[in-house]
Task: structure prediction
Amino acid sequence: DTGVSQDPRHKITKRGQNVTFRCDPISEHNRLYWYRQTLGQGPEFLTYFQNEAQLEKSRLLSDRFSAERPKGSFSTLEIQRTEQGDSAMYLCASSLSGDQANYGYTFGSGTRLTVV
Amino acid sequence: AQTVTQSQPEMSVQEAETVTLSCTYDTSESNYYLFWYKQPPSRQMILVIRQEAYKQQNATENRFSVNFQKAAKSFSLKISDSQLGDTAMYFCAFKAETSGSRLTFGEGTQLTVNP
Result:
């Protein structure tokens, strides 16, 4: 297993366009998380899944954002009608559930979104 | 809601010396976990060390150790024998046992190790 993979690494889009990011977690991890990180700040929680169920969403996840994990494996994060304020690094992480989730998460390298 | 504060935006240290990064947090939870993550310029966040709040003994991982002061809500990271590869952004993070799976991060400290 090569860890958590995110695609693409970089995305430049025009304001108003839709974008979709993909995350492939560690195969045996049933929990998957999305975070957003703006320049010079710590990551902020967006949402997380246990298997295919989306169990928690942050207030940061506006109606323009949607995340899915249809088969409990990879996940996608879509942003509709992008705005310049959406420019950030989008990080994906995965972990086991239960007490194992308290041992920390494995993060991917992120997708850098730039909205112009 | 929990908050995590890292009051040192930047720090520098000479190679082979020791440096301490500060972190304070605020919570009303009694059971929680604390983490230090390292984010090198390649961007992937790597777990450095973790501490369980109910354990009084400070965690250590090779050259990395923490000073956990539960009453003061303080969780500092000490890096001994600093190496050039330690240059990175360091984030302190908090996870309450009751918060589902949400990790709350501090603002980060950029550490530069100078040769």
Summary: The mean pLDDT of chain B is 93.
